[in-house]
Fold:
Amino acid sequence: MIDLEGIKRTFSAHYARSATHVVRSPGRVNLIGEHTDYSHLPVLPMAIDRATWLAVAPRDDGRVRARSQVKPGDADIARDALDAPVDAPWQRYLVGVLRELAGVAPGAGADLLIGGDLPTSGGLSSSSSLSVGLLRALDAAWEAGLDQRDLLRRAIVSERHVGVEGGGMDQTVITLASAGAALRIDFLPAAERAVPLPAGLEIVVAYSGSEAPKGGSAQRDYNERVVACRLAAAVIARALELDVKAAHDPEAAPLLGDVAFAAGGADALAHVADGLPERASAREVADRAGVALEPLVRLTTTSFPADDAVALRAAARHVTSEAARVDAAERALLAGELDVFGTLLDVSHHSLALDYKCSTAALDHLCTAMVSAGAFGARLTGAGFGGYALAAVPPQRVDDVIAASLRATDGPAFRVVASDGATVTSL
Ligand code: NG1
Structure:
């Protein structure tokens, strides 16, 4: 049984001492707005009733020990030796968090026990659930008193140390979600609002049968798309003769969101997207648009190869159209127009599959099976390249959609419920 009592007991049995705090940090399903967050364009995710649970107690020797019931490999990390190699891939998230907490509670360490019922195979945001949970647990155990926005910012950056240049969607919804609602997140200007899910809408998620290898090939594929969006932003700004700066960091390359803001909305970019070169390298774009090369290729831990051509026309087309679908989906949910909402999911999936090229044959097959079984619509959720799909389903079709998903891919497939963001309990 995964709950507060269970994780507390397991902690005591493993460490022969009592935990001081327990954290529940949910996973998430992104309803729509896929691959838009790192361009600072809107997203519409919800937190789910599957979560990472963490129990923690402080130490005073700068060591952070962690046992995961979800992934093998116990961690024993010295806070003053964060460059040392880790024993298991999941521990890189812990190291990322510790890097972002350098200088907070110097000399403090912790014992951690990590468990939960959130699948880790990609798309339900197990990595951000873990990172947000670790930050909340350590902040509480160390009585550091960091405020929620500060912790959120640190959570977003901590994951980039692992090598994926992600946006802020996952950590934001995991921190700020409320039960019964999706969360509309805008990044420019930053704002969030709850979007209550209407009666008659259930959400089913199903595994495609292959993992999204974020530590491997999906990392390169993801970062390539981040760079393609920056290149598209530079070329569009030039074409529209807009002098755009990145709002979040004057040293960074302006994003499609910055260009959309300057142009009066993402709609204003859509018609320019079709006129972009199909593929170009960062060096070609820097020369052509008269902008600096380094910010275009800069990643947190490395640089993207300046001479590798990336697909910028398709990237701009997907991202600008997806931003418009987020607005339309929010309106459809508020109006209870579930057929319209479902169609937007289908169109989003096709755009991700055909233009953004981040679907797989198994994800396509799964989405088709879910819709044939009575879903309003279905799409991949998260970065893609494997992992999970979601379907919007009328209540009377939930069992059929789950059964069809299991036939399509062997599962798991289950219904999820929009739930609250991360919580910390003092024991
Ligand atoms: P998943 O695949 O759930 O890790 C990733 C990014 C998001 C977002 C989506 C695509 C991280 C931690 N998450 O989600 O920020 O860009 O892909 O919409 O990098």
Observations:
- The chain has a mean pLDDT of 96.
- The CA atoms of residues 265 and 381 lie 25 Å apart.
